[in-house]
Amino acid sequence: MVSVKEKIAYGLGDTASNIVFQTVMLFLTFFYTDIYGISPAFVGTMFLVVRIIDAVTDPLMGALADRTQSKYGKFRPYLLWFALPFGLISVLAFTTPDFGEEGKMIYAFVTYTLLMLVYTAINIPYCALGAVLTADPKERVSVQSYRFVFAMLGGLMVTSLTLPLVEFFGQGDKAKGYQLTIMAMSVLGVLMFLACFYGTKERVNPPQEAVSRSYMDNFRQLWQNDQWRVLALVALCLLSGYVLRTTLAIYYVKYYLDMPDSITLFITLGMLGSMVGCIIAQPLAKRYCKVKLYIGIQILAAALCASSYFIAADNVTVAIGLYVLWNLVFNTGTPLLWAKMADTVDYGQWLTGVRSAGMVYSSIIFFIKMGIAIGGALGGWLLAGMGYQADVAQTEETKAGLLLAFSLYPAIGSLIVAFAMGAYKLNTQKVDEITLELKRAAE
Questions:
Q1: How far apart are CA 34 and CA 12, in angstroms?
Q2: What are phi and psi of 131, to 5 degrees?
Q3: Predicted pLDDT at 18
Q4: What is the pLDDT of residue 215?
Q5: Which of 163, 167, 122 has the alpha carbon at shortest distance from 21?
Q6: What CA–CA distance (Å, rounded) separates 36 from 98?
Q7: Is 203 within 8 Å of 140 (Cβ atoms)?
Q8: CA 27 from centroid of its chain's CA atoms
Q9: Cα separation, 97 vs 406, whole angstroms
Q10: What 3-state class would DSSP assign to 73?
Q11: Positive or negative torsion for Cα 80, 81, 82, 84
Q12: Pick from 170, 146, 123: which is nearest to 24 by CA?
């Protein structure tokens, strides 16, 4: 059993990660277009290029973590080594030197690339750490539920505090306000990563052959894992829709609902809905088959997302309510997805005799980041294509395009996910059987 104290310590690692992740998802496009003055078309292309570069490094980072041998374990030491660089580069990414139009683009590209690379260096080992805290499949859901409740706490900090702190620190200078806000949050994030490092313990030790093989052997073993392939497709489609919707949320509130002063309220309530979803994931998983439950969650999330298309701009209460409910339903599936990744690690070991937690997590995160890249790029390209102009009243055609991109397009991602999960066979019974066989083999 993993103690509540250790689950909290593990969760604090994702609170720290989400301080930056949610800031990037919710504010970075807006920061680049409306604060730093970069064109949305360039931002969309930059997001795609950088996130592809970043995604390619994920499996390499996972393979490196699997081979790490230290007195702290395989995955924990990266929390110690990269906490401070992560905080420093986060501040640089939200700094706005006056380099002229071309110089701004180069600076944004370089700092955003560095931010994503250092995020990979600390987040890949952190995610894999969840698979070695316990070998109990039921405890894994609990660990991931704690993790994502604390992750959403990080998101809640971002949604509720970012814009007020920007105003407080900036005193009318939004560029300065963003820089100092991220600086304050980064200090807190560094401390949380250190708390995660000191408060957790690696218990599941992989067989030595997992680290004695070549990188190419690890990739070949990974490809044999058919359930990994299902989760890879799920991750790609899931995050493409999610990031597109969250990227456009600020624009939706500011320009479609015409309530710029309610941006913080809108995204904060959405984050509270996400927290509730993560909390109820564990009791639901105990009562229902995790696979069938996840499919139902995605179908319902798609329906709620698409419903926003039919809500008039003056029906603000319903618009907010739908967004909160969508976040609640969508993020009920988040701990379930990450618990499935740990199950897939066990399945790969049962299938091939090789346990590579770092490779499984990092490669699925590769597809997560590809989804993020696609969703972020689509957000920038769609804004450019619909004729968006920063910080001015938008045309009716632009508002109509914004509504479509915020509602119907992201719903498609959830529907594809629900369909793809039909090929996922690691239900509760199968996972229990695999866990028992692995335990017997280890004795």
A1: 32
A2: -85, -15
A3: 86
A4: 63
A5: 122
A6: 9
A7: no
A8: 14
A9: 32
A10: coil
A11: positive
A12: 123
Q: Which one-letter amino acid corresponds to residue 246?
A: T
CA-to-CA distance for 252 and 254, rounded, in angstroms? 6
Q: How far is Cα 364 from Cα 228, in angstroms, rounded to an integer?
A: 8
Q: Which of 83, 145, 63, 54 has the alpha carbon at shortest distance from 362? A: 63
Token pair recorded at residue 431? 């996972």
C-alpha to C-alpha distance for 284 and 50, rounded to whole angstroms: 37
Q: Quick one: DSSP state of residue 186? A: H
Q: What is the rounded average pLDDT for all residues in the chain?
A: 88
Q: What band does 268 get if pLDDT is binned at 50, 70 and 90? A: confident
The DSSP code for 108 is H
What is the DSSP secondary-structure string of 320-364?
HHHHHHHHHHHHHHHHHHHHHHHHHHHHHHHHHS---HHHHHHHH
pLDDT of residue 321: 96
Secondary structure of residue 395 in the 3-state scheme:
coil
Q: How far apart are CA 7 and CA 151, in angstroms?
A: 12
Helix, strand, coil share of the chain (percent; to 5): 85, 0, 15
**Does the structure show a pLDDT above 50 at 212?**
no
- Round to whole Å and give the CA distance between 324 and 62: 34
Instruction: Tell me the per-residue pLDDT of 92-125, one tens digit each, with 9 for 90 and over.
Output: 999 988 888 899 999 999 999 999 899 889 988 9
Structure confidence at residue 290 (pLDDT): 84
For 428, the token pair is 């509760």
The residue behind tokens 């109820």 is 280
CA-based radius of gyration for the chain: 21
Amino acid at 93: A
Structure tokens at 360: 């499984």
**Quick one: angle between helices 226-251 and 290-307, nearest 10?**
30
Q: Which residues contact 98 (CB under 8 A, 6 or more apart)?
A: none
Structure tokens at 8: 């909290």
Closest CA to 166 of 158, 151, 176: 176
Give the DSSP letter of residue 308: G
Tell me, rounded to whole angstroms, the distance of Cα 110 from its chain centroid: 21
